[in-house]
Amino acid sequence: MIAAKRRVPTGRATRIAAVTALAVFIVLGWFIVGIPANLSRGKEVRIFIRKGASFREAADSLAASQLVSSSRLFALYARARGTDRTLRWGTYILHDAMSWEQVITSLRLGRGVVHSLTIPEGWTIAQIKPALADALDLVPDSIEAAVRDTALLHRLDIPTPTLEGYLFPDTYMFADRTTARDAIHTMVYRFEHEWKPQWDSILPRIKLKRHDIVTLASIVESEVRRGEERPVVAAVYLNRLHAGMALQADPTVTYALGRRPGRVLFVDLKVKSPYNTYIHSGLPPGPIGAPGAASLAASLMPAKVPYRFFVAAADGHHEFRRTYAEHLEAIRMVRQKGMPDSTRQSADSTTKAAVPKLKTP
């Protein structure tokens, strides 16, 4: 006779299954939530969560960047915790060693959100302010106060009322809720970092202060379209300064007019401003934009050339000349190359009248 198989009471079996499932869930949960996707630690990962993105879309991005091992399980975990509806969009910088719990918290609270801002070479404070306000959601007045920080002006020995020229052009990653003061300080610190210590030893030899070099470099930055011409353009301006000639730099006129660098008319040359280098000798009071490292270096170490004049051609390069007569000929040549044959003869006859008389030593 075969003995009947002993049956486990239904209620007891259910309890055993529940306890077993719970134990498995706890073990798996600890493994999934507590253990990072990557145990190498220390590697930063940049990820962008677009505005309006669903949590599942964010989970897919996290999985693609190997911040989580499974987008589906991560989304299920967030749903179970009720955190799949609290997501802040933006660009995040996270670490590949973060646990799922840490990733969830970052997305919920916006921890690790950064704002990218690129300041091109030559930009003025007037151009930087709206870009900074838009990137960091700042009040314009707070930026205006920050660029007039008297402590920074004193530390940098800047005689002008703002930090024009000292907000170094670069791409910045600002943390969420960065203040205007902190953002401006970061740009100034970048300038101080880029200014090489050995450059200070050059200043006494050329009898210029750092503020003079930053000012000159800002003009060079606005003039050049080809990087290799920076040392030559800087040399032209320094040659004119040493000869007692007015700089007659068009970018200083557009700056005085509150415009971006571009075409300058004869009527513009009469603008009454200390930045108008057609009517005021020497360098202007301060920079007319933010020069990059290449323009700073070119102004400190210009080319050894005798030129005192240059004219821009249509393709962006400059024709450099030593004398005013040679300069007039260069202007005629440049204009002829850019004109139809039918208009070249009339252009030749008006070249001298079209060029303002330059002071020569």
Identify the notable features of this structure and list them briefly:
single chain, 361 residues, alpha+beta, Dna Ligase, domain 1, four-stranded antiparallel beta sheet, 16 helices, 48% helix, elongated
What topology emerges from the helices and strands here?
Layout (H helix, E strand, L loop, with lengths): L9 H25 L9 E6 L5 H10 L6 H11 L8 E6 L4 H10 L3 E6 L6 H12 L3 H7 L3 H6 L15 E5 L4 H15 L2 H4 L2 H4 L3 H14 L6 H13 L7 H7 L36 H8 L8 E4 L5 E4 L2 H14 L3 H14 L7
Antiparallel strand pairs: 1-2, 2-3, 3-4, 5-6
Helix pairs in contact: 2-3, 6-8, 11-12, 11-14, 12-14, 15-16
Put simply, the count of helices is 16
Write down the overall mean pLDDT.
Answer: 85
Instruction: Tell me, briefly, the overall form.
Output: elongated
Structural class: alpha+beta
The CA-CA distance between the termini, in Å, is 130 Å
Instruction: Estimate nothing, just give the exact number of structural domains.
Output: 3
Low-confidence stretches: 340-361
> How would you sum up the major sheet?
4 strands, antiparallel
Q: Helix and strand succession?
A: HEHHEHEHHHEHHHHHHHEEHH
Total count of strands: 6
The share of residues in extended strands comes to 5-15%
Strand order of the largest sheet: 1-2-3-4
**Fraction of residues in helices?**
40-55%
